[in-house]
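Sample log: Wall-associated receptor kinase galacturonan-binding domain-containing protein.
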Amino acid sequence: MGHPMVLNFFFFLEFFLCLTAISALSVAKPGCQETCGNFSVPYPFGIGNTNCYRDLTFELICNDTYYNPPKLFWATNLEVVNISLLGQIGTLGYVSNYCYNSQGYVTSGNNPSFNLNDNTFSFSDTENKFTAIGCDTLAYLFAFNGENFTSGCAMISTNIEELINGSCTGIGCCQTSIPKGFRYFEIAISSYYNHTKVYDFNPCSSAFVVDYNWYNFSTSDLLNFTYNLDNYGYARAPVVLDWAINNWPMETDISCEEAMNNQTSYACGNNSVCGVSKNGLGYSCNCSQGYQGNPYLQDGCQGT
Ligand SMILES: *[C@@H]1O[C@H](CO)[C@@H](O)[C@H](O)[C@H]1NC(C)=O
Ligand SMILES: *[C@@H]1O[C@H](CO)[C@@H](O)[C@H](O)[C@H]1NC(C)=O
Ligand SMILES: *[C@@H]1O[C@H](CO)[C@@H](O)[C@H](O)[C@H]1NC(C)=O
Ligand SMILES: *[C@@H]1O[C@H](CO)[C@@H](O)[C@H](O)[C@H]1NC(C)=O
Ligand SMILES: *[C@@H]1O[C@H](CO)[C@@H](O)[C@H](O)[C@H]1NC(C)=O
Ligand SMILES: *[C@@H]1O[C@H](CO)[C@@H](O)[C@H](O)[C@H]1NC(C)=O
Ligand SMILES: *[C@@H]1O[C@H](CO)[C@@H](O)[C@H](O)[C@H]1NC(C)=O
Ligand SMILES: *[C@@H]1O[C@H](CO)[C@@H](O)[C@H](O)[C@H]1NC(C)=O
Ligand SMILES: *[C@@H]1O[C@H](CO)[C@@H](O)[C@H](O)[C@H]1NC(C)=O
Ligand SMILES: *[C@@H]1O[C@H](CO)[C@@H](O)[C@H](O)[C@H]1NC(C)=O
Ligand SMILES: *[C@@H]1O[C@H](CO)[C@@H](O)[C@H](O)[C@H]1NC(C)=O
């Protein structure tokens, strides 16, 4: 039988992989904390010492004193759920939620604003959608990226029979696209009849920008949207941000050509190529063909 042979072969292969893995799989800078719980933290993101991240916009905080398993945070209080070296980071963003009582008075409500305070991050237009939930609901998105942009949803439906789990059809759940490259938004919610006609099955309206791959409409969300409640009792929804390398803290965007002129600040390591970033701000790095690893480390890209 070939079985033992196969095992031996893999043992052999693993032995070699382990030797190269020391450099190839190391995603953080040498001497820097590489994981937070089971999360791996790749450079240019980093934890702790200032030389562990590229600049302050990439600083993450691993909170292992309060949370078990530990949680990773970006920009003081945005929880990180995902980091990709292909230029995206998943965070838990803010949700606007308004609840009414049977008399039509607001019992709780909030209009969050979300500011990505630099030219390195923007809300991903390809992964997120502005989403509103409710059957007596007006929800607005006010965004700014040099220009004002306003979008929204308006919904009235009194027939619970029309609602379908899993699909956002415009009845009880409405989704719209967001524009590329914007870095600031506010959400506001109002209502036509203060939910008095739908109170039995829909006392609350909510609206948020969300990773649309994550969100599936459920009629139970009409009762109250309570995903990922934070320490203050506010719901959070996953939102994907595009990130790029830029000439922080300057507010002007830098191209690959300009970046390469200064090898001290150029972010792409050996055996990597510079390219246009996902959000059109600054640039991004990628390992050259035939190489794999973290292109943001000096020797992060290793031959395969
Ligand atoms: C981390 O571990 C938790 C369970 O402790 C698991 O649910 C989660 O999927 C893991 N995350 C990653 C990124 O591996
Ligand atoms: C961890 O989270 C708790 C609760 O939010 C907070 O009080 C504490 O300061 C955080 N620790 C760090 C190191 O950020
Ligand atoms: C993490 O990112 C992957 C790929 O972008 C995506 O499929 C997945 O849903 C994300 N996970 C979370 C928890 O957001
Ligand atoms: C955007 O809207 C705000 C508030 O309505 C207004 O103060 C500001 O002048 C507008 N900016 C531009 C560039 O139109
Ligand atoms: C809804 O509530 C607002 C403020 O609570 C009130 O001014 C308005 O008259 C109410 N509208 C209806 C149709 O009940
Ligand atoms: C939505 O459905 C997808 C696919 O079935 C699943 O992976 C995802 O976890 C669901 N999201 C939520 C919030 O339950
Ligand atoms: C949708 O799913 C929720 C939660 O699983 C369930 O309570 C509800 O009855 C479902 N609604 C429909 C219309 O199937
Ligand atoms: C809805 O959930 C929020 C927590 O996000 C809570 O503060 C509020 O009291 C709830 N309202 C209703 C009507 O269930
Ligand atoms: C190159 O980048 C470094 C680090 O950001 C900076 O200190 C230096 O002034 C830059 N050199 C030039 C010629 O711009
Ligand atoms: C990076 O390069 C690999 C091949 O080397 C390619 O498959 C991948 O799509 C590239 N990614 C980006 C974001 O350009
Ligand atoms: C590229 O690799 C060579 C050989 O390993 C090394 O001498 C050089 O410093 C590296 N250059 C950069 C920009 O990392």
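Observation: The longest helix spans residues 3-24.
Observation: The helical segments are 3-24, 256-260.
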